Amino acid sequence: MCTVCGCAEGETKIEGHEHEHEHEHSHDHSHHHEHDHQHEHEHHHVHATSGDQHHHYGTGPAHAHAPGMSQARMVKIEQDILSKNNQYANANRRYLAERGILALNLVSSPGSGKTTLLTRTINDLKATTAMTVIEGDQQTVNDAERIRATGAKALQINTGKGCHLDGHMVGHALEKLAPEDNSILFIENVGNLVCPASFDLGEAHKVAILSVTEGEDKPLKYPDMFYAADIMLLNKTDLLPYLNFDVEACMANARKVNPKIRIIQVSATTGEGMDTWYSWLAAASQLATIGN
Amino acid sequence: MHEMSICEGIVQVLEQSAAAQGFERVKSVWLEIGRFAGVERSALEFSFDVVTRGTLAESATLNIIDIPADAWCMPCAEPVDVMERFDPCPKCGSHQLQISGGEELRIKELEVE
Q1: Which residues of A fall within a CB distance of 8 Å from B23?
Q2: B11 contact residues in A (CB cutoff 8 A)
Q3: Gap between the Cα atoms of B23 and B15, Å rounded
Q4: In this structure, are residues A289 and A130 in contact, taking their beta carbons and an 8 Å threshold?
Q5: What pLDDT, on a 0 to 100 scale, did the predictor assign at position A14?
Q6: Can you tell me the ipTM of this complex?
């Protein structure tokens, strides 16, 4: 089982990358089912101290099978559940830092206009800036094809049943995509405002995209995501005349959750506000190239 | 449903600990879950049952220790309790809060044999 991938084995597909890790799950537990289970559960807090490291049946004190002695023991592990993902994410972060690549994790609901925003950004900046894209969706390579139509390199990851990208998938995608030094890497996460908040990919910033067709209280409904994002793009502002959307209330809600969030209003269709987004991109990209 | 991948992560940690510390079965798992860890308790319990089937933790009891959230209020310059990320400071009403606890997602200890 590829544990860090949030999906059953074989569900995740990275274009051109066959997921063929050798999972050595040797399930040959030698269960000596001869416990004197008197359900006393005396939690003998036998912590894993040096002398206790090899507490196998047959070698440890449990071997004695003294009447009434429980085979059970307590093990303190105090381990972060997402530590494995964080290790992959940190490896990605190092890889990116060494190459001066700015990586942005784009998160939003489905249909907020992420891909349209990206294609417009790439078309407007491609003359001066190198950009690559990792596309995350449950199924289809449609989004990667839309990006490739702009001439930019893109790689699709299908997460299958999974609801988010993780550090491991992005690590493999980086090997395959090999973005050039000092470029910008956009990682378009699966459209989902819940799960991607918990999984670090090694990005410099999470960029939350919210469209004005969605309702101004979305930052309050999905606070974890808006807390995790450094920047929010309020998209589809060209539709504001036709909607009852209170821009000020929406921005206030985002700042309630995250006082530091930077908000840019854009329309990827008309281009309104896009220059501000490009200025931010240029500044962030320059920062990524300084030091390592 | 990222609770499913979280449970797969738990099983992976259990398998590694089993190899390192020489146990074969996990009878109980204690998790520390912060209020802001982004984990839904019932979804986690359901996923844990499903994911542990056929593993060393099959039928293990899952115990969840809730960790409350707290924050640092900038204007008050002191720690305050919050229930939600968008809560104002209960003392001064400001939203200038920095979350300082409640994001834990940790395996605390195991009962093994």
Answers
A1: 55, 73, 75
A2: 1, 3
A3: 9
A4: no
A5: 80
A6: 0.76
